[in-house]
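Notebook, p. 212. Picked up where the previous page left off. The plan for this session was modest: take the two constructs that came back from the sequencing core last week, fold each one, and keep the raw output in the notebook itself so nobody has to go hunting through shared drives later. Recording the first one now, exactly as returned: residue sequence, then the structure token string.
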Amino acid sequence: MATFLIHKPDEETRVIKLEKALLTLGRLEDNDIVLEDIFVSRRHAEVVRSGDDYIIRDCKSRYGTFVNGERITEKKLNYGDEIQLGNTLITFVDERKLDRVPERRIVIRKFGDVPNIDEYLENMKEMIQRGEKKERLIRLIDDIKSIFREYKEKLIEAERAREIASTLCEAGKVINFIFDLNVLLNLLLDLGMRMIQAKRGFIMLYDTGTGELRLKVSRNMGAEFNIQKSPGISKTIANETFKSAHTIAIEDTTRDDRFKNVGSTTLYHIGSVICVPLITKGKNPIGVIYFDNPSGEKKFYRYDIELIESFASQSAVAIENAQLYEKIKREERITERLQRFFSPDVVKKIINEEKAIKPGGEHCIATILFCDIRGYTSLVERIDTVIALEILNEFLSSMTEEVFLYEGTLDKYIGDCVMAIFGAPVNHPDDPLRAIKCALGMKTKVEDLKKKWQERLKIPDVIGFEIGIGINTGEVIAGNIGSEKRLEYTVVSNAVNIASRLEDIAQPGQILITKDTYELVKEYVKVRTLPPVKLKNISQPVEVYEVLGLI
């Protein structure tokens, strides 16, 4: 039978057979399996039996359900899986193989170096038998008291150190699994408040953009954070802590001269305060974690300060890791979006040089290329629609590869037409020549595609499959254009319209360029001069050249 082995520090392993079809796990007494763990939710998870399978589901718990270190919503369990709910570790095993499951043990260290009480008692007994004076006995008793006070303090310190280490170890088991920054910050604040029994608290992180601390999460701060006229004592302490990179701990704010003029001390009845800087391993302050209690309630003492300082160091590392994880994920998303329009090399330049694509656009000189299939509509009428779509996708993919080969920008697909830009957002001294090389490459690629289609698809109709290309160079406005919900990088100007119109009049297999482009490439390109043409919606005739090849 399927069985849970539940392991907890300082407790014997519990063995629970999964006899019911549905079992619930959580802190509440009405759960089938009750887990006394502050990091476990009241109704944390459930296990459902489906035939021979057992499925564990997270019940929207605050700190998550993990199977073999991975946070899950729902997962089929396999024998040997390790489930973690808070600080409780559960092993899913087959009852018949229990004897093969290694026992988990937690070794607790014991304190030594205890004073020899027998020796002191023997001395006292001899002194009484000899009839020593009372004063000498009193001094001996005082010596014993002094020694025991010293050892008691050492034991208390050692116990505190053990508790801090144990608490941080248990906290680390939870926070090291979390890379969602918002979830992590909420968890850290809750853990800190529980550790020192604080009523209120917040975490602020440094914003490199504004150069100020920004509130990220808070608990029970109320209206103080809405006050505009004065920052209040909590924000004042937070700013002071961050600037100095040292802990500020106040046992009683009403008796601290540093903050007697800050009005919120009285207004919010703040009594005891701890504010600790969050400092990374590289000694960089990234924020603060703050706790306070009202006047008349628990005060914070040295032990609380030591605990929170250690916890803050651990928290800073976790926050830095989460921020790094979010940065990597953000860059991956940006890279994925950019790769739809730019070659991998251009993407690297945009990211590495932090070349921003400005909203609203910027003026620049660019060369625009339009490439369109001639007779595609009539071809579609003669062949199967699925094959026609396959041909179109292969064509667009092949043309895009050619654009990226010369580090151009794929602007858009317009049906069976490709629009590309050379010179934005990344420019090169030879962008016009790159555009022409790309156009010549496109013609070669089309011939290769036609041979493949004839062999693979057995379609003679593709013999007449041709493209026409128009190229123009001029000033454009380049940038993100569209609505708030959908933005696309593109260029707009009359230069774009001329390139589009040239492509319209290009005959099958023709590459047409304007004089503006020709003047920039004439040393490298063979052309045939054509008569000036009147283009649609263009007021003046345009001088046109047909590209024949490279010199």
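Okay, moving on. Second construct, recorded in the same format:
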Amino acid sequence: MVLLHVLFEHAAGYALFAVREVEEIGALLPQVEESAQTLGTFLNVVKLAAFAPFRSAQSALENMNAVSEGLLHEDLRLLLETSMPAKKKKALLGVADAKLGAAILEELGYQCQTGGVVAELLRGIRLHFHALVKGLTAQSASKAQLGLGHSYSRARVKFNVNRVDNMIIQSISLLDQLDKDINTFSMRVREWYGYHFPELIRIVPENSMYCRVAKFIGNRRELSEESLEGLEEIVMDGAKAQAILDASRSSMGMDISPLDLINIESFSSRVISLSEYRRGLQEYLRSKMSQVAPSLSALIGEVVGARLISHAGSLTNLAKYPASTVQILGAEKALFRALKTRGNTPKYGLIFHSTFIGRAAAKNKGRISRYLANKCTLASRIDCFSEVPTSVFGDKLREQVEERLAFYETGEPPRKNLDVMKEAVAEAGEVVAEVKRKQEKKEKKRKKREKRRLEALAAVAAQEEQEENSVPEPEVRAGGGRGWGWWGWGWGWGWWGWGWWGMGMVGMGTAPAPAPPDPVAPAGGRRGAPEEEEEEAAAGGGGD
């Protein structure tokens, strides 16, 4: 006979089910397949042997992480040691994960089985789990699964807001679009204002500066020596400012109306604001690249590196590309055209905009592009998979490209890659240690601030509780009268006697007096009650 137990991992806890004893495990398969859909028949096959619920959501997350990695958690070890049969040779444990079964066999010595009838049993247990465990409803089981799923996914994703390459992709796309728009708008301002002052185009060829000068001058006939200082601040050249002033006096341009001038100045202001926004966007792109891909930025530059990431779709995709793909990334049309016509394939794509390609001789452009693509691939992989981003490797890779470029020109042999990487690893280790030290220091400060905040909250709560306890409560006296002393005659109900007046203990404040026992009437009398006394007093009668 085989003693088969099935381990089921749920978001609510571990469950161990005992299966009906059979001579062969395979004989259970037809019966399990037929009864898995119906709870009544499935209960004839399995029975809950033990259930160990998780103590908290954090405990559930730790156990699920251990199960997913094929490790035996202490909670699971305790359940198996206390619930499995003592004779390990006859016991057989069915598990869903083979790695977890191997860990159980290695540490506890229980034979584990996966697949076949175990898979069918687990399917039935998963279907009827909320009915097999007492006190667990389908709604609570669903909530536990949802909460654990969110926690597990969040821990696996390890989202870091400082390393989001989507922002880089959008920034470089917007930067390229702004370049096109600013160029188009600047040409429109040149043509528009050129009718009034055509000589200004030759003196100020730069688009953004031309718009600033055109807005500052306005009507060229109003330009004078007094405006020379402000004009010099814009063009940052005294000789050029004087040339603009001289050209305005002898210009061949047409006169312009005030309304046209207002529109030109308004449009120039828009172009200037777009140029300023572009500079801010470029600084933002530089800062994001230093956070997300510092090595790639140090090697090839922020703009070219951002274009590579944007064309690949993400930094992870770029890291997966081989060097041959990175070399021609951005030249797909030329590549397919060359393959179709059986011509020469392109030597470079987006990396052509790097300064290394432009500095290389014509015969060495293909060589340096292959070498640069190789180093870009290494830099992107370092940036993608390193825990602490640093530009040390990018600086070293850039030095290697410089040495290779010098080797092609002068023949001086470069350093070996092994020596350069050893230096980079040593420097990166120091940088990472410093970063971790700063992070630990920040974490300690944060914990201290949190501790002080909790202590302040506790002190405020204790003070409020003390103030509540210090409020004086009304004093309860033995009598129900009013007065200004501890003893005296007071107006109220008396305990002894049958009239309106009585002697009682009085004090400051009032409180309901406890009901006195019924007095025993004297001989020949009767036992009185307060209601009866009140009725007799109202009737005008005195005491007996």
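Notes on construct two before I forget. The CA atoms of residues 130 and 139 lie 9 Å apart.
Flagging for discussion at group meeting.
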